[in-house]
Amino acid sequence: MKPSLTRRGFIQSAAVGSGVLTWLSVRHAPGAFAADASKPALLGGAPVHPGGWSDWPKWLEAWEPAVIKVLRSGKWYRGDGGHVAEFEAGYAKLLGAKRCLATASGTTALLVSLHVMDVDAGDEVIVSPYTFIATYNAILINKALPVFADTHPATLTIDPTSIESRITERTRAILPVHIYGMPCDMDPINTIARKHKLAVIEDACQAWLAEYKGRKCGTLGDLACFSFQNSKHIPSGEGGAVTGDSDELLDRCHAFHNVGRATGSFKGAKPYFTRGSNYRMQQFQAVILMQQFDKLAQETTRRRMNADYLSVHLKEIPGIQPARLPENSRAVWHLYPFRYDAQHFNGLSRDKFLKALNVEGIPCSGGYHEQYFDGLLDEAMNSRGFKRLFSAERLKAWRESFQELKGNREVCAATVALPQNLLLAERRDMDHIVEAVRKIQTHSAALAKATG
Ligand SMILES: Cc1ncc(COP(=O)(O)O)c(C=O)c1O
């Protein structure tokens, strides 16, 4: 099942038409609720939330001189100035990580991490299927097999109990994804990894400042990857980072992202001691990112406050179940997901519910779909390289194993997800979200009958 919009698409669509709004403020059309507010907007009534939402990303004029200074200096490349290193130190401090390496994107952060953790051609990586497609791609580009563990239907993250049975003699790493900024249950994952001597690489590309048992995501495995792409909570158009506590691993990451040039503990007689690529961040990106450290912290607090409020009120509605977080952890809500049960809505399908909620002025999507059936993995599996690296039996069994991902199928079919910018609005706007869901439930029989 495919969502009506892609993740980035609906974040953009949530922002459309709200260019005049100031940061964190939301405009309401006066008297808009006086119209037939009791009738669903999809059936001709007035939308619950007619005023739009805060646009994204946001930029303050006060930040511009720092960017212009870099522009005029002509020192745009990381080797020509200190901004990227300054950003790395600042981001590491924010997370409580020992080291950070800035990269060109989240995808390149994943490529660097997989390479440094010695994921090589013909290896297998156990990964969450419920993620942005870049996670799959990074493994495939390393000519390794992404072996999907199942998704836990209540948490939407990797189900630790489904990992061990998927380990083979080729498994090198586990790649849990803190999807939507919700921390994975890392303790059992790390225990399994230690037992089987596997690397743990966190995909924290949506989890800036998320916390698990008092520690930030990005400090919970061997290495972790972040994205600063434009839709993200701390954006710079494109950008990424690898974080970790091992100087040796981070020096290796640095070398690999910088054409194999020796750095830190590897600095010695030979300038190029390893293979490498060019995944460097530019000075501009670093300056743009550093301006947003405080904003990220403030907005994270606000998103959490609004998400907590939504969870309290949405779970009172029969058929709506907010996602469950691991004990003692805090999400940052890149998307705010809840589970929708059509049985409590007179059989109104999830897709019709999404349509009805969107028309009420609440941007939403169905999140990720079962993308392993899209053809990407068949294309990889039928490539000359993969056929050389894996036996026909292994590839057949791997392809068949997608059918076993029952938890993931459930999550893909039942999730409703709200984009992060909604959580930057006022309490009154959160009430609109709850009110819109209640209104759809009240009229669900009529909506289920309506076509289109
Ligand atoms: C979970 C996840 N992994 C990886 C990536 C890849 O990051 P980027 O788009 O910066 O390459 C993203 C970005 O959207 C993501 O959300």
What would you say this structure looks like, in words?
- By secondary structure, this protein is α/β, with parallel strands linked by helices.
- It has two domains: 168 residues, Aspartate Aminotransferase, domain 1, CATH 3.90.1150; 231 residues, Aspartate Aminotransferase, domain 2, CATH 3.40.640.
- The protein contains 16 helices and 13 strands.
- The strands form three sheets. A seven-stranded mixed β-sheet has the order 1-9-8-5-4-2-3, with helices on both faces.
- A hairpin with a 2-residue loop joins strand 6 and strand 7.
- The two termini are 17 Å apart.
- The N terminus is likely disordered.
- It binds pyridoxal-5'-phosphate.
- Pyridoxal-5'-phosphate binds next to helix 4 and helix 5.
- Pyridoxal-5'-phosphate (PLP) binds next to helix 4 and helix 5.
Topology diagram in text:
Layout: H1 7-15, H2 64-73, H3 83-95, E1 99-103, H4 106-116, E2 124-127, H5 133-141, E3 145-148, E4 171-175, H6 186-196, E5 199-203, E6 211-212, E7 215-216, E8 223-227, E9 240-244, H7 247-257, H8 283-290, H9 293-314, E10 320-322, E11 329-330, E12 335-340, H10 350-359, H11 376-381, H12 384-389, H13 392-401, H14 406-414, E13 415-419, H15 427-442, H16 444-449
Parallel strand pairs: 2-3, 2-4, 4-5, 5-8
Antiparallel strand pairs: 1-9, 6-7, 6-11, 8-9, 10-12, 12-13
